[in-house]
Q: What sequence folds into this?
């Protein structure tokens, strides 16, 4: 029999980044009891790293902006595989969610007349990102955290969930352990909201921390939920690449928003060389126009550096592959050049991009006001996730909700910068609201003690084995393989090898042995995370093999073009009755005529 | 390739000791990289907190060669490699295991500070107008990443263990951010004097020195708050004025 402490909550929220905290605040405001579990301490989740800003069509800087433009931009960026209802709700509600944060104490940078300032970002037609220098995420998570701690929410920090508990097809709770003592905890809940973030740790080069092992994706999948769009992994074009120890750390798109340019080793601004047809009319065709755009000139079009992330990342890969890369295998991102344009450029850069200045100075010995940065693509964001209802955020499993990065639908094949912070506010709130509503209509269900015993038994097996390999090497080998074979550029044969590799790694993962005891033991934690990582890696690989075209973040060397026939479906991943993973095509959700018209008008 | 020797604290509530490890050092490496190498190859169960690895989340606080620092922002080439590098947990908080301490006291302290209370929206659109310069004034405090290194170095907490009477530099910065927030109308001055123990701070500025975000904690946050306390409680003219003014 498993030993565990039991906690009762109406709504349990797994994850305490922006989406989890926003959901918790909303659910508790609805009058239900709320518990939040998080793998790290409060305020350390990945939201804290977000730099550029939160997208909301408030029209403070350019009054031509409104929800319809934001909707069209999001759909175009996602190559029309987005759930249109989610894109609509998101565009309509994000301004209110941002203003609400201000009422809770967030302080954004201001326009001259004292309103919230908005900046340019890739794929957004007008300046749309509310921001605080380049530390917007910190401002947001701290605001949510400082507001949330006064709401009577029960926080369980440093607590990891191993499995969701189900009964009669409905979610009835979750089971996991506290990191500190390794004690098991069982949470009985009428509704569970997954807000666990991304999957970046499945790759070697990533901007994500150890936490992002696809827990929510994997928990939902094994509980019978449907995953969607798993082939779409966003590789952010600008990660640090030198020195080796900082490889993958994010360099905000805000650098390009403030006028930063990308150049190859011949000093050429290569982004002008390849502008996709559907962005041709909205992109500058000369450097001067691009510069004017970044300085707020409304008549100018955006520079090609601010094209969508998928495209910029691929252009960088092409430059490197064709021998025009920087010494350490990337290209140059130059903001220092703006001294030709601005008298006080160095001060301006430090004011607009303080944490970038600090990060390069301290970790790379580079003064970005004087020299260019060396950058290359880094695994950044998962568009795919738990398939949810566009209004309520409930998955196919009754009582199971998902919000933020671990949910799917809003971003389609590629996410626009700034749409993640707005995503987690808009859909975090909705998930909290509807989870509370659902919980009020339910009675607490029975926990299946067999299920609990089985999960707890399995999770301790690594202690019972001795002499096996440690968990870290298995994790590294998986990350290497996913990076090489299911990365930015994909081909069928390599992905088949990856699938075989995953089966082999699964066997190794089942045989790792862990030293020490259950108290704060990262070796044990890593061994348990392997299950989640392997599940999401398999889902990514299978979906990527099934989509035989290139679209958004998914690029195949053997199918380099978009295929109109593939523009009609999303790929979904489910656990079959035999326990095997199944991938199938589902037609895109129907779009209202009003939304179709908006897309046509804005083309 | 150079190698470095580390003396890392291994132990739990029951006790512990420094253990020696060595690892290869490559270009650009930070202390946290070395700790991770050791963890992955020699000590799988060594407890350490980290998240962003870029000085933005404030998780990997420790004492390196006796100095409170973020492990992710301490470059190996800034340390003398000819002698062992000591890495130990923060001293001001109870140990959980190895490099991980129980910082939950900080979370409780924060809940005891009166929350943000904005004035009623006064712009026609139901929000507020705020000048950039009013934002700039508190941005410095809002940069705080809650690494708690300032709490660790503060002698009131570290040496005198007055955790029940003094909230420490981090939360004086937090209180300053609220008190100087352009929209906030709450009054925390009496609390600062009584519950929060601001008088214990004798402005030795150790907190300012260790802040990885370079927040001028003492001069810009604590001293102005102390001035507000003094104005309220110790200014004889103001006291006289208050005693005659209508309630």
A:
């Amino acid at each position: 029999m498993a030993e565990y402490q039991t906690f009762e909550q109406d709504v349990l929220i797994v994850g305490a980044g922006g989406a989890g905290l926003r959901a918790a605040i909303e659910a508790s405001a609805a009058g239900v009891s709320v518990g939040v579990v998080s793998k790290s301490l409060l305020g350390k989740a990945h939201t804290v790293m977000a730099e550029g800003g939160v997208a909301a069509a408030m029209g403070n800087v350019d009054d031509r902006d409104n929800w319809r433009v934001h909707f069209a931009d999001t759909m175009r960026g996602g190559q029309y595989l987005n759930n249109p209802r989610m894109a609509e709700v998101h565009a309509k509600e994000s301004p209110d969610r941002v203003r609400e944060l201000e009422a809770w104490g967030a302080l954004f940078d201001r326009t001259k007349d004292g309103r919230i300032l908005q900046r340019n970002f890739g794929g957004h037609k007008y300046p749309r990102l509310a921001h605080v220098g380049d530390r917007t995420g910190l401002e947001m998570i701290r605001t949510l955290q400082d507001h949330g701690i006064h709401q009577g929410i029960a926080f369980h920090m440093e607590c990891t969930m191993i499995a969701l508990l189900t009964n009669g097809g409905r979610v009835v709770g979750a089971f996991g352990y506290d990191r500190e003592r390794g004690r098991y905890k069982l949470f009985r809940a009428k509704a569970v909201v997954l807000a666990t973030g991304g999957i970046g740790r499945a790759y070697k080069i990533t901007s994500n921390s150890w936490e992002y092992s696809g827990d929510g994706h994997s928990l939902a999948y094994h509980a019978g939920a449907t995953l969607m769009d798993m082939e779409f992994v966003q590789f952010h074009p600008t990660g640090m690449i030198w020195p080796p120890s900082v490889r993958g750390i994010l360099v905000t798109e805000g650098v390009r928003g403030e006028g930063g340019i990308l150049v190859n080793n011949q000093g050429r601004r290569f982004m002008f060389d390849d502008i996709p047809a559907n962005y041709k009319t909205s992109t500058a065709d000369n450097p001067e126009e691009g510069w004017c755009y970044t300085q707020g000139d409304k008549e100018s079009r955006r520079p090609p550096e601010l094209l969508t992330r998928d495209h910029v990342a691929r252009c960088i890969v092409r430059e490197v592959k064709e021998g025009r890369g920087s010494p350490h295998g990337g290209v140059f991102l130059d903001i220092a050049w703006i001294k030709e344009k601005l008298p006080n450029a160095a001060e301006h850069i430090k004011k607009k991009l303080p944490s970038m200045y600090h990060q390069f100075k301290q970790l790379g010995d580079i003064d970005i006001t004087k020299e260019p940065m060396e950058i290359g693509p880094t695994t950044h964001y998962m568009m795919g996730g738990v398939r949810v209802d566009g209004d309520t955020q409930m998955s196919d499993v009754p009582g199971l909700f998902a919000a933020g990065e671990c949910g799917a639908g809003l971003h389609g094949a590629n996410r626009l910068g700034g749409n993640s912070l707005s995503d987690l506010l808009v859909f975090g709130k909705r998930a909290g609201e509807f989870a509370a509503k659902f919980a009020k209509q339910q009675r607490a269900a029975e926990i299946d003690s067999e299920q609990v015993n089985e999960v707890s038994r399995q999770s301790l097996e690594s202690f019972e084995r001795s002499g096996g390999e440690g968990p870290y090497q298995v994790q590294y080998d998986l990350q290497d393989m996913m990076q090489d074979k299911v990365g930015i550029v994909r081909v069928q044969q390599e992905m088949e090898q990856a699938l075989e590799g995953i089966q082999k790694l699964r066997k190794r993962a089942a045989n790792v042995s862990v030293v020490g005891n259950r108290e704060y033991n990262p070796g044990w934690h890593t061994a348990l995370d392997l299950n989640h990582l392997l599940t999401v890696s398999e889902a990514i690989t299978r979906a990527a093999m099934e989509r035989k075209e290139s679209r958004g973040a998914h690029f195949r060397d053997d199918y380099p073009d978009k295929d109109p026939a593939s523009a009609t479906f999303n790929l979904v991943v489910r656990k079959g009755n035999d326990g095997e993973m199944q991938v199938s095509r589902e037609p895109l959700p129907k779009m209202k005529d009003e939304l179709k018209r908006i897309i046509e008008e804005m083309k | 390739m150079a190698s470095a020797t580390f003396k890392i604290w291994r132990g739990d509530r029951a006790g512990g000791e420094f253990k020696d490890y060595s690892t290869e050092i490559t270009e650009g490496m930070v202390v946290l990289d070395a700790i991770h190498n050791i963890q992955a190859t020699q000590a799988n169960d060594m407890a350490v907190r980290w998240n962003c690895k870029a000085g933005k989340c404030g998780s990997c606080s420790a004492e390196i060669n006796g100095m409170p620092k973020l492990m992710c922002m301490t470059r190996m080439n800034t340390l003398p490699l000819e002698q062992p590098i000591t890495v130990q947990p923060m001293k001001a908080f109870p140990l959980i295991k190895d490099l991980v301490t129980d910082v939950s006291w900080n979370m409780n302290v924060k809940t005891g500070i009166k929350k943000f209370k904005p004035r009623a929206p006064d712009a026609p659109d139901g929000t507020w107008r705020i000048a950039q310069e009013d934002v700039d004034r508190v941005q410095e405090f809002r940069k705080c990443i809650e690494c708690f290194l300032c709490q660790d170095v503060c002698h009131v907490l570290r040496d005198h263990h007055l955790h029940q009477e003094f909230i420490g530099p981090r939360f004086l910065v937090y209180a300053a951010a609220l008190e100087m927030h352009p929209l906030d109308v709450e009054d925390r001055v009496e609390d600062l004097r009584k519950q929060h123990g601001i008088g214990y701070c004798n402005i030795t500025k150790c907190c300012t020195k260790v802040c990885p975000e370079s927040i001028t904690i003492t001069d810009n946050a604590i001293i102005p708050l102390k001035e507000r306390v003094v104005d309220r409680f110790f200014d004889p003219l103001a006291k006289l004025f208050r005693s005659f003014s209508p309630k």
About this structure: Residues 2-101 of chain B form a domain with the Ubiquitin-like (UB roll) fold (CATH 3.10.20.30). The CA atoms of residues 231 and 237 of chain B lie 9 Å apart. The longest helix of chain B spans residues 217-233. Chain B has a mean pLDDT of 95.
